[in-house]
């Protein structure tokens, strides 16, 4: 797994030994971030269920201002920190070891707002919809923000209150769903 574009292009990213992570394939990551390119310059990014940090690191490499990574597994959180150092992006990032669903509420209470939210939770548990619902309800989305969920194509989160789906893509077994705040706020 590597960074596909930007200042850290080609940087190899590690995965945690024995951690239950399933990193986003380079093909899917490249497609997602090619679609997000116009939104990344200077963006604040939230990477939920961060795993290796590959999605948030890709965003930083492509021009995002900063990123918050949320990962509950301690080994994976340590790997994210290591990957950020390897990519020389650690100064623009913070890693929170927490449950992604509760972290969203905590970030909202702290007044944090994000332009891009990416989430790639474990497949088959309905977490895509639950995480998008938490994001929509929390107020962490800045005006004009986008939230992108990845999962098995069967994990389609469907309609989410407070969000409208703007794009859907499928890459083999992987589905990707783009949402924006409903009503533009």
Structural notes for this entry:
This protein has 185 residues and is α/β, with parallel strands linked by helices. It has five helices and seven strands; from the N terminus they run H-E-H-E-H-E-H-E-H-E-E-E. It has a domain at 26-139 and 169-181: Rossmann fold. Strand 1 (44-48), helix 2 (54-61) and strand 2 (66-70) form a beta-alpha-beta unit. Helix 4 packs parallel to helix 5. The longest helix has 15 residues, at 26-40. The N and C termini lie far apart (35 Å).
Give the gist of this structure:
Helix content is 31%, strand content 26%. It is of the alpha/beta class. The protein has a domain at 26-139 and 169-181: Rossmann fold (3-Layer(aba) Sandwich), CATH 3.40.50.
Please name the CATH topology of the domain at 26-139 and 169-181: Rossmann fold
Content-based structural category: alpha/beta
Q: What is the ordering of alpha helices and beta strands?
A: HEHEHEHEHEEE
Instruction: Indicate the CATH architecture of the domain at 26-139 and 169-181.
Output: 3-Layer(aba) Sandwich
State the major sheet. Answer: 7 strands, mixed
* Level-1 CATH class name of the domain at 26-139 and 169-181: Alpha Beta
How many β-strand runs?
Answer: 7
What is the helix fraction of residues, given as a range? 25-40%
Helix segment tally: 5
Strand content: 25-35%
* Mean pLDDT across residues: 92
What strand line-up does the widest sheet have? 3-2-1-4-5-7-6
Rounded to the nearest angstrom, the radius of gyration is 15 Å
Q: Distance between the terminal alpha carbons, to the nearest Å?
A: 35 Å
Shape: globular
């Amino acid at each position: 797994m590597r960074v596909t574009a930007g200042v850290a292009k080609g940087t190899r990213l590690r995965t945690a030994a024995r951690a239950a992570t399933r990193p986003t394939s380079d093909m899917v990551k490249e497609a997602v971030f090619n679609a997000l390119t116009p939104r990344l310059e200077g963006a604040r990014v939230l990477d939920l269920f961060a795993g290796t940090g590959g999605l948030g690191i890709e965003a930083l490499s492509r021009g995002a201002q900063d990123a918050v990574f949320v990962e509950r597994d301690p080994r994976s959180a340590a790997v994210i920190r290591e990957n950020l150092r390897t990519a020389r992006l650690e100064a623009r990032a913070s890693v929170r070891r927490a449950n992604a669903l509760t972290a969203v509420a905590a970030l909202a209470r702290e007044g944090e707002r994000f332009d891009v939210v990416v989430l790639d939770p474990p497949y088959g548990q309905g977490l895509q919809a639950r995480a998008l619902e938490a994001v929509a309800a929390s107020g962490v989305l800045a005006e004009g923000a986008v939230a992108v969920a990845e999962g098995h194509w069967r994990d389609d989160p469907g309609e989410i209150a407070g969000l409208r789906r703007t794009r859907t893509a499928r890459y083999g077994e992987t589905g990707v769903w783009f949402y924006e705040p409903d009503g533009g706020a």
